[in-house]
Amino acid sequence: MFVNGVLQERGRDYEVAGRILRFRKPLAREGRLGTVRWLSMFLGVAGTYRKNDSVDVVYEVGGQRKVATGLPIYAPDAQRPA
Q1: DSSP label at residue 10
Q2: pTM above 0.85, yes or no
């Protein structure tokens, strides 16, 4: 389990609840950029410095190592897919 490329430790950094990983620190994805922000970045006036966490999981299936990258991040009270 990695967040932004940093190894996370189960019990210290996150817990597993069924198929859901619950992190102790808040995680967030950068939302869509508005027209003004996109234009200011394009012109080199400003950049984007919003929080944009990335969650990657390394696991084994049938003895083969697999990696799931860029997993979705949900707010604690958000509706999750089944």
Answers
A1: B
A2: no
